[in-house]
Amino acid sequence: MDSESADLTKEYIKMMTDMIVLCATLALSLFFWIVSLTLSAVSGNLQPVSPWRWLLSILVPLTMAVRALRRRSLDRSGALAALLVGFVLTMANFSFVSTMLTFFLTSTKLTRWGAEKKKKIEADYKEGGQRNWIQVFCNGGVPTELALLYMIEVGPGEIPVDFGKQYSASWMCLSLLGALACCAGDTWASEVGPVLSQSQPRLITTWQEVPVGTNGGVTPVGLVASFLGGAVVGGAYFLTQLLLVSDLHLADPQWPIVVYGGVAGLLGSVLDSFLGAHMQYSGFDSSIGKVVSYESATTRRICGKPILDNNAVNLFSSVLIALFLPGMAWGAWPR
């Protein structure tokens, strides 16, 4: 009886906590909306942000951060960082946050998939792939900055990708999508390749066979997975556009967004592997029988130098894709 009472008490406390959080979220979103209206009335040239957008900008990141914290996909610092990233992306454009959520959810699922096999080959394997604030900002920092620039350019809201009508904003949209697709492609390749690949990885710089887990090692399965990961992220962006943008028929075709995401995922994975082969140390530690990123008396060097870690390589790859890929897409975009 005591255990039943304790369980009921816990359920009651959980329900009350959820209600308090929801009420606080509603109050906070209403407060931000009033501030937005006030600033718009004073300046005369600002458009007030909808209270629904304020509400979703707080509620969606909060829900996802709490869920990720409970499932140990993020630690506390990662959850706080995700709140900031999620708030900015949701406020700027719902296509942005749907893309980020697709990347995060699929990556989390794939990280947990094939855990037993990954434990045997990864020296720094973490149960559930728990991410901290550094990893969150290395993957979401560039998109967050682009979302802020997007809001300065056109304000919060959804627009079609159309270089003829919204050149700079369209560039920012594709840059943001490219950065997230790059991260998704690299994650899908690194999570799917070791589990499904039947062939030994080859170092991207020399094409010599290397042990599984070597930075810069690629497989055909991993490359295909990187394209699919980017395409899935691009598909989430495209689907959100179809649902929320009313004048898509007046803009350039939007379906290339899916292909663009796939290309960004593939190129991002290749670029990540190239940087990893040169700037990340990989060595085989005979004492544990695994590839490691540190030098020791029992370690035989495979490739790379200890210049960057995995987070920095991810960041550099996403920055380069965000900077250069939209220019290539602009010339090839159908009109």
UniProtKB/TrEMBL annotation:
Belongs to the TMEM19 family. PANTHER family: TRANSMEMBRANE PROTEIN 19. It comes from Kryptolebias marmoratus. It is a multi-pass membrane protein. The chain crosses the membrane at residues 20-39, 51-69, 81-105, 221-245, 257-277, 315-333. Keywords: Membrane, Transmembrane, Transmembrane helix. GO terms for cellular component: membrane. InterPro entries: DUF92_TMEM19. It is found in: Membrane. It comes from the Eukaryota. This is Transmembrane protein 19.
